[in-house]
Amino acid sequence: MSIRPVDHTSLARPTMEGAGVHLHRAFGFGDPAQSDPFLLLDDFRNDRPQDFEAGFPWHPHRGIETVTYVLSGTVEHSDSLGNAGRLGAGDVQWMTAGSGILHQEMPEGNARGQMHGFQLWANLPSSLKMTAPRYQDVQGDEIPEILEDDGTRVRVVVGSFWGKTGPVDGIAADPQFLDIWVPAGVKKTFPVDTYRRAFAYVFEGAGAFADASKPTGILLEKEVRGQEVNIRDMSGNRTLVRFGNGDEVTVQAGPEGLRFLLISGAPIQEPVAWHGPIVMNTQAELEQAFRELRNGSFIRPQH
User: Which stretches make up the Pirin C-terminal domain (predicted)?
Assistant: First the structure.
């Protein structure tokens, strides 16, 4: 077994999307080879309704799949195929845009005005770029949760992990999408398939992800539950951690514990032509998609 080293860490960048929604982008619209098969991860946690209530009015997608994971608040969605639904706290939605879809996503805060969640974009291989669009909405109580004796908690949103399989299936990138909580001071190791590209995104507390053979950062001494715990530089809220090769990820939780997404998928390794919400393989395909948007033929008949 080999522990994946940390290749790179970075903080999510503030940005604005839709009709003026303030969010933080962990990655996206950079070099797609860095995160293949994933294209983008947006953190839309927000506590000010005026910063998100304008939402994401009607817009197109083609050539990708999206996974939306809601922690707090709700998201109302509808599309050009007549689908409509409502995602609440703990729910997840998988959407295959495929050949093309027009949809809108309108967020609403909870009683405290909070709208928290994430959206991940996964690329489709060329053979599936023009597949029929489809949705899968999953209620939070359908997502299996694993509780370890040391207090570690894992929600298996997509994929299989420690004997449990998430309810979302059929995603071309065959991703593993885990929501993990590690209690204060606990050191934990998680298996990740050797052939997958993997990253973590921290959104509560802090901790240290490291290659045990090559620890980096300044050694810190913290007292947790009456015991001193040695921790190197910690990754905190809104930190993206990219991993190198290996088959395990190890983390040491800080004094407040640590909650993070652990996401992995098999690279597609195909050319990417990308503009806004449309992702194809060639510039010609991209130009065709925008021509179809202009002339009204973007949405393909469903059989």
Answer: 178-298
Q: 163 phi and psi, to 5 degrees?
A: 85, 0
pTM, entire model? 0.91
* Bridge partner list, 119: 42, 68
Q: What are phi and psi of 99, to 5 degrees?
A: -65, -20
Give the SS3 label for residue 295. helix
Q: Which two tokens stand for residue 54?
A: 């304008």
For the chain, give the number of residues. Answer: 303
Q: Output the CA torsion sign for 100, 98, 21, 32.
A: negative
Q: What is the DSSP string of 172-184?
A: TT--EEEEEEE-T
Amino acid symbol at 189: T
Say what the alpha-carbon torsion angle 5, 8, 11, 13 is, to the nearest 10 degrees.
-140
For 133-166, the pLDDT digits (tens) are 988 899 999 999 999 999 999 999 999 999 999 9
- Determine what percent of the chain falls in helix, strand and coil, rounding each to the nearest 5: 10, 50, 40
Tokens at residue 172, please? 């071309």
Amino acid sitting at position 37: P
Distance of CA 297 to the CA centre of its chain: 31
